[in-house]
Write a structure and sequence with these properties.
The complex is a heterodimer.
Chain A lengths: L3 E4 L2 E4 L5 E7 L6 E7 L5 E8 L5 E2 L8 E7 L2 E6 L8 E8 L9 E2 L3 E5 L1
Chain B lengths: L3 E2 L4 E5 L4 E7 L6 E7 L5 E8 L4 E4 L2 E6 L4 E6 L8 E8 L6 E3 L3 E6 L1
Parallel strand pairs in B: 2-11
Antiparallel strand pairs in B: 1-3, 3-8, 4-5, 4-9, 6-7, 7-8, 9-10, 9-11
Classes of the chains: A mainly beta, B mainly beta.
Chain lengths: 117, 112
């Protein structure tokens, strides 16, 4: 149980285009979803927290107009990287929280590798 | 602001050694601490979770301890194997529904 999927697992795009990444909780309803970013040899850094049906809360330094987060349902959150640039190339990982599963932790997706040419 | 540090950044050992991985955090007001494993290009696998009220947790060859007052945790790996080669991440949170603050990880290589 508590499986989180991400799609796509890997994406390559041209500079200036937009890319959408999906995060799904497959067997539970997630009240909260988190989006993290990991640059090479760096730690995972939280980008934003989203609750179903409400606007995402972005961490300081993360541009909300560039990284659009939609949490339309209790099982799906999407991250859209708009007008992507090479510096946005990174590993994006989502996680999902449900107090019905555990009040102690989040469950992580497998990640999406974004490469912007 | 919570900061999590893992030193060293990398470690290479021969198979069979017992290992200690260190993690320190600056704010002792944590809810819990987790150790994760990350294989290259992959997501995270949760290894052990220690509640702030606990001192240690064990799972197979892994044992994690927590000294909240001093802001430290260690992950002990007994009888290391080549399959243990991965990056190990330490993370703390101030609540189950709160964000995790991660260290940069320690890349472990266990040589046959």
């Amino acid at each position: 149980g508590a499986v989180v999927s991400q799609h796509p697992s890997r994406v390559i795009c041209k500079s200036g285009t937009s890319v959408k990444i999906e995060c799904r909780s497959l067997d539970f309803q997630a009240t909260t979803m988190f989006w993290y970013r990991q640059f090479p040899k760096q730690s995972l850094m939280l980008m934003a927290t989203s609750n179903e049906g409400s606007k995402a809360t972005y961490e300081q330094g993360v541009e909300k107009d560039k990284f659009l987060i939609n949490h339309a349902s209790l099982t799906l959150s999407t991250l859209t990287v708009t007008s992507a640039h090479p510096e946005d190339s990174s590993f994006y990982i989502c996680s999902a929280f449900s107090p019905d599963i555990s009040t102690d932790t989040q469950y992580f997706g497998p990640g999406t590798r974004l490469t912007v040419l | 602001k919570q900061e999590v540090t893992q030193i060293p950044a990398a470690l290479s050992v021969p198979e069979g050694e017992n290992l200690v991985l260190n993690c320190s955090f600056t704010d002792s007001a944590i809810y819990n601490l987790q150790w994760f494993r990350q294989d290259p290009g992959k997501g995270l696998t949760s290894l052990l979770l220690i509640q702030s009220s606990q001192r240690e947790q064990t799972s197979g060859r892994l044992n994690a301890s927590l000294d909240k007052s001093s802001g430290r945790s260690t992950l002990y790996i007994a009888a290391s194997q080549p399959g243990d080669s991965a990056t190990y991440l330490c993370a703390v949170s101030q609540g189950g529904s709160e964000k995790l603050v991660f260290g940069k990880g320690m890349k472990l290589t266990v040589n046959p």
